[in-house]
Amino acid sequence: MRCPYCGHDNDAGTRFCTNPRCGRFLDRAPEAPAAPPPPAPPPPAYDPAGPPPAGPAQPGAPIPANYGAAPGAPITPMAPMTPMTPTPVAPVLPSAPGGPPPVAPAGGTPGVATGPRARPEATAAHAPPAFTMTRARADPVQVSPIDTPTGTGDEGPSGGARSPDGRQGLYVVLENGSGDVAVGSEWLAQVRISNTGGIVERVDLRTEGLPPEWVTFEPAQVNLDQNAEQVVLLRIRPPHASSTLAGRTPFNVHVWSLTNPTVRVTLSGMVNVGSFADCTLTLDPLVSSGRRHARVTALITNLGNSPVAGTIEAREPEGVLRIHPSTLPVAVPPGQPLPIELQISAKKRRWTGVPRTHRLKVELANAQGSIVEAEATMTQTPTLPSWSLKAMTLVLVVVLLGGGLGLKRWLDIRPRQVPNVVNTPMEEAKATLQKAGFDEPKVTQEPNAAPLNVVVGQDPTPSSWLAGGSAVKLRVSAGPAPVAIPNVQGMSIDEAKAALSALGFKAVLDKAVNDPLPKDQIAKQNPLPDVPKAPGEIVTLTPSLGPETIAVPDLLRKTRAEVNQALQQAGLVLSVGTKKAPKDWDPGTAFEVSPKEGEVVPKGSSVTVSFAPEAAPGTTTSAPPAGN
Length: 628
Prior knowledge:
628 residues, flat, mainly beta, 9% helix
């Protein structure tokens, strides 16, 4: 069975289109079976307290008192819904070569769509060009009210199902299952589920006939105790897009037990999706030119979800252009582009004069007024340009100037003798060569005993003949070759200066610093030794002030830890002596220090300190006599 909306081929008997992008209810009843079963008698009213029923429930109807078919019996399919009435659409113009074909469903009139959902897919060839466009958007979404399905009661469609053994049962009511919804907004319905069985049920819900991205159940699954009831919120959100076609969309809500899928209830609803208009009109090119003729393509793109019908009118206010077609009725299905080629011709040919620009206005309008409009310009150029005589004069001037320039060029490149620029500074040599009619010389530097930037060679040699404008090659001195700087650290100041001067370097003294080396010896040098430098470079020398000196602190009668801490703070090193302590000296304290307190020693020197033995455990010491 072919879907009348998207053209997808479905299996025979399919109720809804299996195309994931469509999913609409098919406007045809399923094919009748070869031998239809006899009609069943009307079921009695449902009594929850009564015995298990004997037959399957009819979807969308109240639960009968005798439902519950034999094990393995299939669920009775839903009765066919009333097909939707197609809505004719105004004829659609034949598309340009390579574009999408006009809509022509089977059995219909060629070029006429048979329903509000008939929409061929837009192709890349008709995508709007990337230039300025004018867009018109109609009033907010408009919808036509629909009636609530009959036979559903005050609460809405309802139905029930029970397992063959009677242990499981569901009763479902779809509240607010039909209504109007605008694109980009939300329609809310309620699915009221009751557990009429004798066990705890886990229930799942799905919709059929609506795109999955429209639908949300809150919650998606339900756990129901015995005789419990829960309301699930059904949100239907048609997106604001041209693919969301306007009109009535029937759908089914399936509710079934996850522990026993045969316990299933199917209820029907319908939403009426509102329409919105969004149309663009672009002209390509925006600026055209020609002596008499030009072509402009008007591209109408329907970005809304309902057809756009109207009349294209092209005009030129001054009345000097002919436009074909000047008026044309058009109809554009939702989401489709429609290109229209406009042929423009000037009524009169312009033989001479300046180009003249004409304004072209294209408008799409319907009975209610203008929908969208766009403007472009066509520049008419004269057949014979006004600058023809000026061009001939200019050509003659160019010929004369070209001859004069050619003569000057020949005079510039005639051969001439190369001057001698050896042993002259480079800048002076360049000026001499350019004055003689030669180009900027090519300079190569090389180490040489000659002074820096002095020419030591040239090619061609002096007095040779060379074409004017050519470049002479010069070899320029880069100064003497680099020499490794000697190591003068540890030398006296005079010795270091003499060693550097012998190799052509200049010695400069820096501020003296404390150093383990004796005073006035070189502690540091910059650059470091063995670094190659050109003679004449400066070498910075840092003399030594000698090592830094520290006065020995007072350490007598201090414990070993106190002595060690005092020496570390002063920058000295502890060395423990082995001398025997006086008889009455405090145990564990210093009794002799060498060097003595107050003596000046180099920083980092060792100080020998002798300590009295530590007191034995359990003994007491008396304070030293006064004056000790």
